[in-house]
Amino acid sequence: QVQLVESGGGLVQAGGSLRLSCAASGRTFSSYGMGWFRQAPGKEREFVASIRTSAAGVYFVYYADFVKGRFTISRDNAKNTVYLQMNSLKPEDTAVYYCAARLGSYNDYDVSAGYNYWGQGTQVTVSS
Question: Which pLDDT does position 57 carry in this prediction?
Answer without folding.
Answer: 86
